[in-house]
């Protein structure tokens, strides 16, 4: 299942820069992951300073 970003997101953009398929974009107050594009690699979770991305 695709990763999702929780409300813990601080909108720093670290995850978007790390995503190899550009599935992450800036949303309204937090970043969001396009589930159809996400390849579930976990790169976003590895760089997030607050642990917002997670597999659901």
Automatic annotation (TrEMBL):
Cofactor(s) recorded in Swiss-Prot or TrEMBL: [4Fe-4S] cluster
Keywords in alphabetical order: 4Fe-4S, Electron transport, Iron, Iron-sulfur, Metal-binding, Repeat, Transport
Gene Ontology molecular function terms on file: 4 iron, 4 sulfur cluster binding; electron transfer activity; metal ion binding
Entry keyword annotation includes Iron: yes
SUPFAM superfamilies cross-referenced by the UniProt entry: 4Fe-4S ferredoxins (SSF54862)
One Gene Ontology CC term in the entry: cytoplasm
InterPro entries named among the record's database cross-references: 4Fe4S_Fe-S-bd, 4Fe4S_Fe_S_CS, 7Fe_ferredoxin, PSI_iron-sulfur_center
Key word Electron transport present: yes
Domain 4Fe-4S ferredoxin-type stretches: 1-28, 29-56
Role played: Ferredoxins are iron-sulfur proteins that transfer electrons in a wide variety of metabolic reactions.
Name of protein: Ferredoxin
Biological source species: Candidatus Faecivivens stercoravium
């Amino acid at each position: 299942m695709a990763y999702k970003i929780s409300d813990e997101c601080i909108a720093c953009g670290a995850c978007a820069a790390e995503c190899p398929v550009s599935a992450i974009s800036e949303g309204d107050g937090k970043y969001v992951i396009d589930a159809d594009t996400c390849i579930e690699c976990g790169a976003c979770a590895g760089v997030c300073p607050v642990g917002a991305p997670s597999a659901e």
